[in-house]
């Protein structure tokens, strides 16, 4: 691959920044200063050093974000802060994007990557990837609601697949319930609309997991970390299996 492409993908900087670094003789290939952006390198065999640092080649990057409210699941927006604004420079240089969307007022697990094939596998309606949400509901959730979710809630424009509803807590006095809902689809406002179809209202929604990926509870809202090797293996196996 071209040296400038390698350097951008290694997270060194933008194409323009990389050109400057080359011009300033700050890049070495196998111990020899290289100034040509067009130079072809073998990313597996050649040793590439930039400003004294040996660069490892990473084509794909994966971020787990604990998305806060009031931030939108997009890469750009004229009015709101986006999830990309919360990540680092590498995420921008590598052009990561969110794998699916959470509503502006939903918080919790969001995966961001530049691996289009993985994103496609996770989002494909044919693959039925489980998404687990914790919802605080205004109203008392009942056994009838559980059965209705199991049968498949019918919305105005869409019949949902069977979904699992688990009652975690009920506060009779406040008339609120805390539930876990697992859905296999990802239609617009799906969880909120399913709960509304039962005459109740979601007042807080958090995503806890998506396929094999579970929200790291040590991440506070707005914090992120790269996926661990273990999580990457789990995702890769999952992609093959589903
Ligand atoms: N369902 C919703 O209603 N909102 C989300 O953000 C995700 C699932």
Automatic annotation (TrEMBL):
The keyword DNA damage does not apply. GO terms for cellular component: cytosol. GO terms for biological process: enzyme-directed rRNA pseudouridine synthesis. Keywords: Isomerase, RNA-binding. One of its GO terms (molecular function) is rRNA pseudouridine synthase activity. Gene3D superfamilies: Alpha-L RNA-binding motif, Pseudouridine synthase I, catalytic domain, N-terminal subdomain, RNA-binding S4 domain. SUPFAM superfamilies: Alpha-L RNA-binding motif, Pseudouridine synthase. Its EC number is 5.4.99.-. Pfam families: PseudoU_synth_2 (PF00849), S4 (PF01479). Residues 1-66 form the RNA-binding S4 domain. The keyword Calcium does not apply. Belongs to the pseudouridine synthase RsuA family. This is Pseudouridine synthase. It comes from Streptococcus henryi.
């Amino acid at each position: 691959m071209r040296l400038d492409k390698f350097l951008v993908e290694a997270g060194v900087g933008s194409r323009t920044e990389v050109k400057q670094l080359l011009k300033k003789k700050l890049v070495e290939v196998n111990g020899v200063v290289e100034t040509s952006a067009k130079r072809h390198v073998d990313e597996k065999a050649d040793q590439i050093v930039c400003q004294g640092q040996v660069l490892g080649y990473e084509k794909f990057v994966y971020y787990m974000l604990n998305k806060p409210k009031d931030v939108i699941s997009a890469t750009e927006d004229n009015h709101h802060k986006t999830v990309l604004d919360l990540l680092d420079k590498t995420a921008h240089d590598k052009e990561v994007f969110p794998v699916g969307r959470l509503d502006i007022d939903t918080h919790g697990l969001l995966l961001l990557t530049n691996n289009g094939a993985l994103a496609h596998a996770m989002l494909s309606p044919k693959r039925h990837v489980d998404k687990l949400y914790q919802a605080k509901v205004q109203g008392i959730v009942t056994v009838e609601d559980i059965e209705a979710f199991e049968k498949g809630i019918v919305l105005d424009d869409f019949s949902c697949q069977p979904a699992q509803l688990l009652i975690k807590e009920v506060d009779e006095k406040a008339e609120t319930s805390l539930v876990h809902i697992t859905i296999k689809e990802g239609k617009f406002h799906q969880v909120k609309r399913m709960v509304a179809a039962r005459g109740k209202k979601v007042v807080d929604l958090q995503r806890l997991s998506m396929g094999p990926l579970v929200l790291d509870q040590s991440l506070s809202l707005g914090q992120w970390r790269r996926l661990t090797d273990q999580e990457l293996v789990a995702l890769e196996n999952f992609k093959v299996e589903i």
